[in-house]
Structure formats: structure tokens, C-alpha cells
Amino acid sequence: MYRFLATPRWIAGFLALLLAAAIMVRLGYWQWDRGQQKSAANDAVQAAQQRDPVPAGDLIPATAENAPAAADEWSQVTISGEYDPANTVLIRQRSFEGGVGFEVVVPFHGEDGVTYLIDRGYVLATGGAAQEPDVPAPPTGTVTVTGIVKRAYDAPADATRVEQVGSYDSVRALDPAVLSASFGQPLAGGYIIASDEQLADGSVIEDINRIPPPELSDGPHLSYAVQWWIFAAMTLFVFGYLARREAITRLLADEDEDDEDTRSPAYASSPTDT
Question: Model's pTM, two decimal places?
Fold first, then answer.
């Protein structure tokens, strides 16, 4: 009944569908692995954010050529010192809930003798990416900043090149080494995304939109993996369905041929001699 499966056409079809199913299974495992990696990364970020703040110098290298350890990214740190608003840098073309805007990064002379880059928050664009936005001035005097450690962007040179947006220096991606050379002063590696700024009298500064914490969703990887595995199973089911339908078609054709043969004159009874 299924001898036709041994023909070249059906063998080639089966091998093609088997290859397609294998690829789909592999894609499913790839999505599963990405989901596991995403989940592990989210767990690491959450654990880092829940740790108590430590002095910034404990986690952030004092020189721009050295980045914070990957395991220390998203950890909370604190540092006291004074802002240097003359060297404010805008990170342009950033997307936020209210629209496109600029992240505002200001050098901060820490009391530990190291100058850190503090991402104070963001302002929305009032025009295009080349139009100077309204940027609130950082607080003066001694300020205590609490925030999270962030490693520099892994970006090409044209993205980290310093350009002008109105009276401000601007980049599309932050690189402390590039800014250190531009400012003519040493900067710490990485930077700090501020979540809290307090003056010496304890008052809290709230004149800028803070950068929201990263979204800790595992994403759709698990559902994508299941979908690929379902597609793989459906591929093999389709082959089985086609093979079954072909077998039935051939069987019916054989039965019709047998019926036709029984009705043929060659099978008619001979006349009785009288």
C-alpha cells in the first residue's frame, strides 16, 4: 500500500520536509536559549539593583580607559561632590515615553578626587535633533548623587564623535575616553545614571526626568520556541497526511480498475450449449 514511498520523488520530498523540520527544531532551541539568557540577565540586573549603594570608587575605575566590571553594571553607588556644568554633554536621538529627547550628562568632581560622568536624566526635544533643548542647570554646591553603574556604549567612532547642538557638546553614544580627550581632563570609566540628588541640607532635586530603570521582561522567546516546535511537528504531520491521501487514492484507483475488469467481456460467462 505504501510502496510508492520508496520512489525517488517521495524520498526527496520526505528528506526536504525532514530537513525543514530539523531547522525549525533548531530555531526553537535557539529561541529557548535566548530566553534563558535574557532571564539570567534580568535576574542579575534585579539582584544588582537590590544591593545597598556603595561608594562609586569601589565599582567604577578612576580612568576612562577602563570600564566597570560587567557584574557590577546596574549596581547602586553613591558619591558626594560638585557638578561641572560648563562641560555638559547631551546624548541625542534618545527615545522616551513622551517622545524623542536628550539625555543630560554632566561631569561631577567627586570628593574622592575622581571626576565621574553623571547622567542626570532626560529632557524632551523642543525641535529637531540639531536644535538646542531646554536643559535645567545642575544644582550648585555639594551634592550627593545616588544612582546605578552603567558601562559605556559599544558604539562606532562616528556615534561617539563630539558635535554641537546649540551651545552644548553632543554625542549619539557615550564614550568616557572620547569625552576625556575633548574636555582635557581625566574621567572615570563608565558613568552613573542618577536616581537621586540631595543637597547638603537634605533637600532633594527634582528638576529633571530621571532615566527609567530597564524593563525586565523575558520577552517572547519562549512562545517563539514553542511556535517553531509546533511548526516542525506540523511539517511531519503534513507529510504523513499526504502519504496517507496518496495511498488511499492509489487504493481506490486499484479497486476501480478491478471493478472495471470484472465488467469486461473477457470475464463474461460462456453461453450454455443447447
Answer: 0.70
